[in-house]
Amino acid sequence: MATRPLEIGPAGLHAARAIEHIRLALGLTQHQLAAHCTAMGRPMTNTALSRTERAHRRCDIDDLVVIAAALGVPPTALLPLGACTDAHPRHVGADARGRAQEALLG
Q: Can you give the residue ranges of the HTH cro/C1-type domain (predicted)?
């Protein structure tokens, strides 16, 4: 029996938009971000990243964590506000956090 794919919910849609916005704010291409993720030990193609950004592919927690690290932001920066507590400041510089917040808030 074939299974029905899970629909991407509001948090997944937010994460998809956040990944794209932060990537663009940092001036990275999908190829570059995917290469950073691969170099960090999580193989990712630009096609997988593109499908994630367009919400055509679910972003699992391992992908979310490595994408956030490759973007230089805490994973919580990719989640809707109120979804998690603030990240520990020692993990990310204030400059990266500021760029991420600016990218999300426009």
A: 19-78
Report the amino acid identity of residue 78: L
pLDDT in tens, 44-71: 999 999 999 999 999 999 999 999 999 9
Q: What is the pTM of this model?
A: 0.73
The tokens of 61 are what?
């927690």
| Greatest alpha-carbon span in the chain | 50
Decide: 74 and 84 in contact? Cβ < 8 Å.
no
What does the alpha-carbon distance between residue 54 and residue 51 come to, in Å, rounded to a whole number? 5
How far is it, in rounded angstroms, from Cα 50 to Cα 91? 26
CA–CA distance, 104 with 27 (Å, rounded to integer): 15
